[in-house]
Amino acid sequence: MQRVLIVTGGGSGIGAAVAAAAADRGDRVVICGRRKEALERVAAETGAEPRVCDVSSPEAVAGLVADVVAAHGRLDGVVANAGTMREGGILDLTHEEWDATVQTNLTSVFLLAKAALPHLIESKGAFVSVSSIASLRVPLGCAAYATSKAGLTMLTQTIAVDYGPSGVRANVVCPGWIRTEMSDKEMAVFGEPHGLGREEAYSEVTRLVPQRRAGTPAEAAAAVVWLLGSEASYVNGAVLNVDGGTILLDPGTVPFEFQVRPR
Ligand SMILES: NC(=O)c1ccc[n+]([C@@H]2O[C@H](COP(=O)([O-])OP(=O)(O)OC[C@H]3O[C@@H](n4cnc5c(N)ncnc54)[C@H](O)[C@@H]3O)[C@@H](O)[C@H]2O)c1
User: Fold this and answer.
1) InterPro entries attached here (predicted)?
2) Which residues of 77-92 are buried (b: 16+ CB within 10 A; e: fewer)?
């Protein structure tokens, strides 16, 4: 039986790599995002089904799940991967920026899970959230993003506990630095005040990584796809860091000014 999966934020980065890896395993993958051209490009490369959907819209999220189940008759897995990042401490962030971050990174996943769980219970399916190591350790200048990701990690673990008895598994992948559009933008914000270009900024931040490099989208996707599959049949509520060991390293090894992200 071909599994049917939804991957949010599938038009680029980790989501696109999940679509490719899951399609390689023979899954039917519906990728959603806001940018039609990006989705169509990934769809052409992977055979995934593109679907324009802004996850910050509650109606769009409910419609996405309903349409996928109507079209395919089942739903076996959901990857809550779409995310947005706004730098800044509380004094830097506007109320609107806070709300937009929490809506996209956290509330949308509550709504996605609410719509998907009845179908995942039926299929004994799996839910995977793409959170961040920022949900586990407090990064500087990242109040809205880190708080929303900490909520996402906990929300996903509540699914594991509340719906584990119904046969659903829910797990969290916490990437560290992975080279994608999001981290390229971060490098610009991070490097600019110090006169560093993108590659130099990557070199500086990856001094915080024991493996001394950023990861690839495919490396993060491999963890997601493993958690979705039967090889992980007794893994529930886990937090799997894909960060080259970053979480373990004392950030004191990098000069303090490079850990601050001014706006
Ligand atoms: N790249 C990293 O270093 C890193 C580290 C930790 C966590 N993450 C997380 O990984 C996930 C994927 O990010 P990525 O690194 O692949 O970056 P990315 O920018 O390539 O992917 C994010 C995707 O989410 C989509 N998206 C954003 N808001 C959306 C919305 N409202 N509705 C639908 N789609 C929306 C974007 O269009 C994009 O395709 C994010 O949740 C991010 O927070 C990334």
Assistant:
1) KR_dom, NAD(P)-bd_dom_sf, Sc_DH/Rdtase_CS, SDR_fam
2) bbbbbbbbbbbbeeee
